[in-house]
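hey so i finally got around to running both of the ones u sent me last week. sorry it took forever, my laptop kept dying halfway thru and i had to restart like 3 times lol. anyway pasting them below in the order u listed, first the sequence line then the structure token line for each. didnt double check formatting much so if smth looks off just lmk and ill redo it

first one:
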Amino acid sequence: MSQPISRFTSAAPFWLSLVLVPLAATGAGIGGWTVWLLPIYGWIGTTILDLLAGNETRNPDPDTPEADLFWYRLITMIWFPIQAATLYGLIWYVTRADHLATWEKIALFFGLGVISGSIGITYAHELMHQKNRLERWLGDLLLATVLYSHFRTEHLLVHHRYVGTPRDAVTARYNEGFHRAFFRVLKDGPGSAWRAERQLLSRAGRTVLHPSNPFWRYGALQLAALALAYAVGGWAGLALFAWQAFVAVWQLELVNYVEHYGLTRRHLGESKYERVLPRHSWNADHKVTNWMLINLQRHSDHHYKPDRRFPLLQTYGADEAPQLPFGYPAMTALAMVPPLWRRRMNPRVRAWRKTYYPDITDWSDYNSGRLPMPSGAS
């Protein structure tokens, strides 16, 4: 049965992210244990609420006209000014506050990194997939506040095209711990994005120095974000800004790790791979986390239909897509402890392989990333 799309009352649960702003203000104003409110709510609170609220397995009508999605789109479009005001406002405040110890400021901006990573980058992800210029610019502005602008190129030109193959650094390999995967992505991601843009420009007969190279925009926006942090809070403000940016990127890559761990596309021979299907991403129906992360956990459908806006993403049963046992907050916490992660997830990967690829008996090349690069990869 299709879930009807209505006015603001239907979209309101997806505005849950606004709760995080007063939590940040409370931590800054009171200090002490309240500086941990953001990560407590983000990981523990939402996991408890997921358990209480249960799962949402109904699907909206995928043919719903875009005009009916205004209230859903609006929260993603207003988030940049909200996040920027919160981030720079708190940089100004805490660098002048006498009641906050250094550790409290560090903890508070860890929490801000949770906001800008789990919410800001998630909204940027939705925005950069759209075709209109305003939304794509808002996505770029959000990514600049976490110094990860190349993510747009890497995600659109590399990840979606090459997910589940050796070309995609974000696809975590079977038995690969998060910490190793994280530093591999940090090392390989910027160069991978640069090569993708260079290849695209070359096809148009342009060099990397051409004004259409988005890396010019990425650099300018990131420099502006850093300059504003310094202007508002001096060197301390700049350090706090950089800290929240690192936490945000760590949060993003934790989610990326969870989304595709161990899932690979069948190698068809030479440089060919099967097309992307719902089975190549982990799916989760946990209701509250999907409200908070605008249906990001319906990731199987996002990769199957990348142009579909978040309110219309479909969910799949276990017969079509592999299912996570918990929502992203609990799964990302589990990923931080590789032995516990492997104990929970490796049997699921092996079951997935047996279900979809029973004829493949040797997975060693898949596990190590030794398969040939897909055709067209640079």
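and the second one:
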Amino acid sequence: MHLSSLPFLLVLISGIFCYYDYDTGYYPDPDDPYVHSMMGPSTAVCAPECNCPETYPSAMYCDDLKLKSIPIVPAGIKYLYLRNNMIEGIEENTFDNVTDLQWLILDHNHLENSKIKGRVFSKLKSLKKLHINYNNLTEAVGPLANTMDDLQLSHNKITKVSANVLEGLVNLTVFHLQNNQLKTDSVSGALKGLKSLLYLDLSFNQLTKLPKGLPPALLMLYFNNNQITNIPDEYFQGLKALQYLHLSHNRLTDGGIPGNVFNISSLVELDLSFNMLKSIPTVNENLENFYLQVNQINKFPLSSFCKVVGPLTYSRVQHLRLDGNNLTRSDLPQEMYNCLRVAADISLE
């Protein structure tokens, strides 16, 4: 990774994975609201079954209480946590006392679209984070305030994302839609108005083609575990900032990948593992991490990595995975070390 981009990426990634990364075990900063959920007694201005720490009185924690409905939320609460309950619906007047709510975390409940009444979320004019992961939604929820920067709807049953639901979300930077039942035609065009979107995860869906109309600011893009067979020519050319692209566990073949589709100068990491490729696609010399394990690759053309080899023209690939293919060390050309001169790890077995 280029050192100049490191500070920005650290800030971005902390915003993406902070608090709710179930896999990495991330521990939040001591000044964040999450930490105060277990510190000290509750304030008087709080729902009796919940906890509003004296050290952070604007946060209300109602996690793991087997709640079937959302309790009365007192004025002054800005961060509301309702994880791991049995909530099925939200009444239209639920948040009338807290229209300035900024975070609403509803992961691991039983929410259904039909039981979310009226335009309950549109009243929250200051809402920034809305997490409804691990519920029973069949459509993306909305409309939402244009203050939103983080929307997480993973692990639901969503088959549809309507363009009008996402309309006006010009500040949205993070959108989690992985582990749903989305098809290509249910996503195409719905995302194009998200002008600030940096992170989009559509992994573990039912996409057979890449959706049209992706926002141009995207930095991280994930399509793992779908049924994608081909990539349109110049599909990524409008994504001038794209650095991380994952397409593992799809049905990509050589015929489905145009010659220069991955020749993206901004790209740092490309994952094409667990597909059906027989040759190595051409990539830009700036690529640093390239994952091709478990394909059917049987040749190693240097032209995939270097058009010209010289003092300043060589591949920046540091990590290259080719294990699970039809290649051995003897298949690698000796001159590859002039091209892959900074490679620290080339895996073949």
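quick thing i noticed on the 2nd:
The mean pLDDT is 89.
anyway thats it, ttyl
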